[in-house]
Design a protein that fits this description.
The protein is α+β, with helices and mostly antiparallel strands. It has 2 domains: 1-58, no CATH class; 61-104, no CATH class. It is built from 3 helices and 5 strands. The protein has helices at residues 2-22, 73-76, 87-99, and strands at 25-30, 33-38, 47-49, 68-70, 82-84. Strand 1 and strand 2 (33-38) form a beta hairpin. The longest helix is centred in the first third of the chain and has 21 residues, at 2-22. The radius of gyration is 20 Å and the shape is elongated. The termini are far apart. The relative contact order is 0.09.
Length: 104
């Protein structure tokens, strides 16, 4: 009886994983056109459209955004949302700090 129960649970687990895996599609811009792919096939140089609530599939630079925060608790243990700035905003801030003689 136990083996039948374990077999049924394993089949349910496989089904749940396949459903979750199918939801890991992202829209990337390649050669100027949007393409929907599985997040495992994101390449260096792809521009990814990020939407609210989605898992971000890679490290990268934020090119264009409004008020972005991320939950990095699974990686860092930090429980507070982390505010993210765009690349131009980060470069501007770095230059301001350098101009004021600050190192960080």
């Amino acid at each position: 009886m136990t083996s039948i129960n374990n077999y049924q649970k394993e089949r349910q687990f496989i089904t749940l994983n396949s459903v979750a895996d199918s939801k890991k599609k992202v829209t990337v811009w390649r050669d100027g056109s949007p393409v929907e792919i599985h997040q495992d096939f994101v390449l260096v140089g792809d521009v990814i459209s990020i939407n609210e609530g989605m898992e971000i599939p890679a490290d990268g630079l934020l090119l264009n955004a409004n008020d972005v925060t991320t939950d990095e608790s699974a990686m860092t243990g930090e429980i507070d949302p982390i505010h993210k700035n765009t690349l131009p905003a980060c470069i501007k801030r770095k230059n301001e700090l350098l101009h004021n003689g600050e190192q960080n």
